[in-house]
Each structure stands twice: as structure tokens, then as C-alpha cells.
User: What shape does this take?
Amino acid sequence: MTINEIQDEIIEEFSGFDDWMDRYSLLIDLGNELPEMPADIKTDRNLIDGCQSKVWIDARVEDGKIMLQGDSDAILVKGIVALLLKVLSGHTPQEILDADLYFIGQTGLQEHLSPTRSNGLLAMVKQIKMYALAFQAKGI
Assistant: This one.
């Protein structure tokens, strides 16, 4: 699936809920479904600066595609991490760099997150794009 196809699925899933409490519940469920991040990569090196809670994101390359893992100590933020990984993991560095992450606005996340969580979300996106840029620079 393309990044946009995945985003469209997420937008459709979120549009099924009129109440933001239900959407928050969906985020929490997504966070609970996120695979456990191994402790050996849950390090300061993978800690995202700019997040109020602790967020770790790690990237590696498999067959030319960036595979992402992530975690957070805050359950709602963990759901946001899960969404980002769902959209961006498994794509090439160029696809990630070119991605317009419109699902953030179209699901209402941008307007319903606190300013500190919104800043954290932007920091996560920035870090993932930096990983993509670094892998692309290495010719991966």
C-alpha cells in the first residue's frame, strides 16, 4: 500500500467516530497494539527531543525500505506513534521524504491535541524524516 492509501484508511477509520472521546479510545487501542520495543534500542539515542512524554523511535533498513519501531511512556502518545509507524514504516527513504502527512489534519488530530502534544508529533515526524534523509544520503 502507498503512504496515501494508508492515510486514507486512517481518515476513514477516524471518520466513523463523531465523539473525540471515541477517537481518543481508538488512539489508546492503537497504542496498546504496538509491538513491544526491545529494551536494547529503547535508549537515549532513539529518544525524541521536543516531546513532553518520553518517545523512542528507531529506524533500520530492510531491502531498501525503512522499518520503524517506536514506543512512549504515555498511552495516548503511544497511539500517535503507532499511527505514524503505520503510515511511514515499510517505505523507501524518498517516499517518506515526499510524504504529505495530511491524515494529521484530516483526522482532527492537529486541532484536538494539546500544544505540547502537537509539538511532540511534529518532533516525531521531523525525526523520522531525518532518518530517511540520512539513509538516502548513505545511498540506501
Notes: The domain at 3-137 is CATH 3.90.1010.10 (Sufe protein. Chain: A).
